[in-house]
Design goal:
By secondary structure, the protein is of the alpha+beta class. It is built from eleven helices and 15 strands.
């Protein structure tokens, strides 16, 4: 097969829109373009072509300051990318090994969704994505609560009632609350929040505007007794509700449980096929009995040694803390 590299952004867009069949919100070109505009990494779309046309396509970007190839658009925080399940085009699933082996040196691909039995030694588990399929519960919260022990269920209900006892109100797509979410995240985590990076803040602001214009935004704000207690930002696309950003105010311990319950009830009421809370193998997800789905990574040999030398402490923990606010409250 012939290897071709496309670096012109307009041509990359044409390839993406021609080859990618979007399944989740991160698969939309416009979503990723919001990050490209602010991170400004060079596109590097890798194509394998044979006599029948394009056999495979990997959408990559080159991050100059790390001297590394990653998935487009290369939204890096603490040395690693953030967006999950980047689509890979394959005319036949059997082309995956050849496509990955065609990657340039110093390639680090994260959060890959592997279909069927397409595992091979160079793909290893990266992180666990935690999701919920309301259809498996007949879209009924009563069935969902059967996953919990009686004690755990009572503890959650008690916390929710304590937090909301003086009256709660939910607001949908109140755009000005983004600034409050940023303020909560920075107050809670400082430089360890990815919202500390101005590129992320501007990218996510653009993402919100795009989703709002497209009718895909689901931003939920919780007020308790007139005070802002929590904000979660997500999107509804293709029957999937993805919660990708959020935070809680430290004065409202347990507000995250209120938000979790609100999301679950919404998904059941609206017949949502899947709720995706993204990666991060944290205890609250197991306590809420979400379904684990492994995602995979591919690292070229010259980066494996560097990766093994890393101290695996701050990134994954703080990545998810920035997603959800006060983690332990959940």
């Amino acid at each position: 097969m012939e290897k071709i590299v496309i670096t012109d952004l307009a041509e990359c867009r044409k390839l993406w829109n021609a080859l990618v069949r979007p399944k989740n919100i991160f698969d939309l070109w416009e979503f990723r373009l919001c990050f490209h505009k602010h991170f400004k990494n060079r596109p590097f779309f890798l194509i394998l072509e044979d006599k029948d046309g394009i056999a495979g396509m990997l959408p990559l970007s080159f991050v100059e300051d790390l001297d590394m190839f990653v998935f487009f658009p290369g939204e890096i925080w603490q040395g690693k990318t953030w967006l999950e399940r980047t689509p890979i085009y394959l005319r036949k699933e059997a082309f995956l090994p050849e496509l990955l082996f065609a990657c340039p040196e110093r390639t680090y691909l994260r959060y890959m969704e592997v279909q069927g039995d397409n595992h091979f030694p160079e793909l290893t588990v990266d992180e666990i994505d935690y999701v919920l399929y309301p259809e498996l519960m007949n879209f009924d919260m009563v069935h969902y609560w059967k996953r919990f022990s009686t004690k755990r269920y009572k503890d959650i209900i008690k916390t929710v009632r304590r937090v909301t006892g003086d009256g709660e109100a939910f607001y949908i797509n109140r755009m000005e609350d983004f600034d409050h979410l940023v303020h909560m995240s920075l107050n809670n985590f400082g430089q360890n929040s990815y919202l500390y990076d101005d590129r992320f803040r501007r990218s996510l602001r653009d993402v919100m505007d795009f989703l709002d214009r497209s009718g895909l935004l689901r931003m939920v704000s919780l007020e308790v007794s007139g005070e802002k207690a929590a904000v979660d930002i997500g999107a509804l696309y293709g029957g999937i509700f993805t919660v990708f950003l959020g935070g809680t105010h430290p004065d409202f311990l347990g507000a995250a449980k209120v938000m979790n319950m609100h999301h679950m009830e919404f998904a059941c009421k609206e017949g949502i096929s899947k709720v995706d809370f993204l990666c991060g193998d944290f205890h609250w997800k197991k306590l809420w009995h979400l379904d684990p789905e492994p995602l995979y990574k591919f690292v070229t040999p010259d980066l494996i040694a560097e990766q093994e030398m890393e101290v695996p402490v701050t990134y994954d923990a703080f990545r998810f803390l920035a997603h959800t606010g006060a983690l332990l409250q959940r």
